[in-house]
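Give me structure tokens for this 195-residue protein.
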Amino acid sequence: MPVVVKPEAPGDERGALLAYLDAQRGGIRRALHGLTEEQARSTPSASALSLAGVLKHVAYGERGWLRRLKADDGAQPDIAAQAAEWQQSFTPGEDESVESLLAFYEQAARETDDAVRALDSVDETFDSPKVPWDEGGTRSWRWALLHLIEETARHAGHADVIRESIDGKGAFDLVFETGTMPEPDWAAFGAEPLK
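Here you go.
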């Protein structure tokens, strides 16, 4: 949580999967809300990750998965090139601002959503090549979407911790501050507002 994902229309599995993926994307975007470039590039927690680095990584990761899903040509990937891109994806370049990375992430998300909506079914498959960390094989687009949700959610959690380390704002604070959801009337439930 911290946002409620509305139920899908009956039978709209791809809509449900995309809604959950977008909810996790939103957590990453909100973690950057109101920060300076310096704050977004800072590494205030025990991790070497910055919020700008998390943003860049998830954008490159989503784009990479989409390339793999759309290619499906059976070619073996260039592992060295992929490893180098993966390593570089955690560190924004001097020419990459939070604004440009948000735009890049938005474009990657739009391309993923468009590709998924163009499918006849999430049962459609692609061949995932063998890589050092996975045996590869035939996968469904459903599997790929669940993997993207998992990876994005893990990094949204990283973003939460990094943001709280910067200024103490948690995910719920940012949900309410950005107007993503109104703060509930906690008193109606006999509770105090979240702190």
